[in-house]
Amino acid sequence: MAFAIAIFTGLVFVTLVDFLAQLKRPKTLEEEIGEAVTKYLAENKKKREEEKNKP
Q1: How does 23-32 read in b/e, with b if 16+ C-beta sit within 10 Å?
Q2: Burial level of 45, CB count in 10 A (0-12/13-18/19+)?
Q3: What is the pTM of this model?
Q4: Rg, Å, the chain Cα set
């Protein structure tokens, strides 16, 4: 009986650890590049608008 409880507890632990690991997964290279490009384009747009508004 104790062996069955130990196996069940182990399975629950492994399931929880796996679930939490999926929540905190690192960003893929594709996601990082996408964010960098978006940030770059936003900064350039802001600079262009500032230069456009200068007399």
Answers
A1: eeeeeeeeee
A2: exposed
A3: 0.49
A4: 24
CA distances to 32, 33, 34 from 46, in Å: 21, 20, 18
pLDDT by residue for the chain (55 residues), tens only, comes to 888 898 999 999 999 988 888 777 777 889 899 999 999 999 999 999 988 887 6
Question: What CA–CA distances, in Å, run from 26 to 11, 15, 29, 31, 42?
Answer: 24, 19, 9, 10, 24
Query: In which residue are the tokens 């399931």 written?
Result: 15
Amino acid at 29: L
